[in-house]
Amino acid sequence: MTAPPIIHGGGIAAAAARFGGKPEDWLDLSTGINPNPVAVPQIDGAAWHRLPDRHRQDAARAAAARYYRTPHVLPLPVPGTQSVIQLLPHLVPAGRRAAVLSPTYGEYARVLGNADIAVDRVSGLDAVTEGHGLVVVVNPNNPDGHFFPRETLLNLHRRVEASGGLLLVDEAFGDMRPDDCIAPLAGDDRPGLLVFRSFGKFFGLAGLRLGFVVGPSTILETLADGLGPWAVSGPALTIATTLMASDTMPIRHGLRQRKACLDQVLAGAGLSVTGGTDLFSLVEHAAATDLHLHLCRYHILVRPFDYQPRWLRFGLAADAASDARLAAALRDFAG
Question: What pTM was computed for the model?
Answer without folding.
Answer: 0.96
